[in-house]
Amino acid sequence: MYGTFVEGFRSLAADLPRNTLLVYSYSKHYGCTGHRLGVIGLNDDNAIDDMIANLPQAEKDRLNKRYGTLSLDPEKIRFIDRLVADSRQVALNHTAGLSLPQQVMMTLFSLFDMLPEGQAYKEKIRGIVRRRLDLLLEGAQMKIAEDPKRAGYYIELDLLAEAERVHGKDFADFLEKNYEPVDPLFRLAEQTSVVLLNGGGFDGPEWSVRVSLANLDDLDYLKIGHHLRAIFNDYAEEWKSSRA
User: What is the pTM assigned to this prediction?
Assistant: First the structure.
């Protein structure tokens, strides 16, 4: 989903097509999240069909019963077609699916990407998220490691790592001992009306805050960064008071 935001991205499907199920969404790249547009791709010669063919007979019988409304020989139905049928509740396979407007949008998006204008658009949106990340970090007075493979659509800023970087491990230990990881988020919301999510819920550091770089004006990210730094400074003052 985020590969188009990474310079030189190469899908695993390009190198291991037989073993890869490719999932892509148009939502992020083209800003059309509400339309729920996506695709699933599978190579004609793939490991999943082989696995189905080698299932125990009892399991094959169960699947044949499930897909028996689609074919007189359901055992020969390819996995990708089973996937389509399941997405359309199997028996309604012939009456459901993507609407015509959705299919047209996906076709136009795909064709646009093949044009020089589509590649220029790709570079432009990469520049947008990079610029917003720079503004966020400038406002928050934070630094993160350089990563040429960072998509930058979302970013998780680790407040505990920042605490140790700025004031040392004693300050980081103070935060962990006296507050919950979500406490900065509640303070931010109460004091500034800025609502962010905890990065721990997205497999990020437990004390991180997650910021989307996709849906606000550029200068809003500078403001969010300022608010984050103000909250961070409040914790630092509380830590210094506790030591005094």
Answer: 0.83
